[in-house]
Design brief:
The protein is mainly alpha-helical. The protein is built from six helices and no strands.
Length: about 100
């Protein structure tokens, strides 16, 4: 009986679009792009809290496919709108400079 409820809940969560930020992927891509490891960890954690997980994961995915951070961010901005640009810039400033 417990398993039926667990499966039902899992299905509801999947249909509900619950997506979590992939901090490991973002962090590794930022380090790979040349950001210091401590800065990348700080930046990826602040971003995860500041922007929608779908946008966050898409930026990380595009970076893993070879885009620069700037290019991946611009692509997401064009697709989802500019509302996340201010928190993104604030997170970058707080962590890197």
């Amino acid at each position: 009986m417990k398993y039926k409820y667990a499966l039902l809940l899992t299905g509801i969560l999947m249909l509900g679009g619950c997506e979590f930020p992939d901090k490991e992927k973002m962090n590794s891509q930022l380090v790979q792009s040349g950001m210091a490891a401590a800065d990348a960890e700080c930046y990826s954690n602040l971003l995860a809290d500041a922007i929608d997980a779908k946008v966050y994961n898409e930026i990380a995915l595009n970076m893993s496919l070879g885009e620069t951070e700037k290019s991946a961010v611009n692509r997401a901005r064009r697709k989802y709108g500019a509302e996340f640009k201010a928190p993104l810039e604030k997170a970058r400033k707080d962590c890197t400079g």
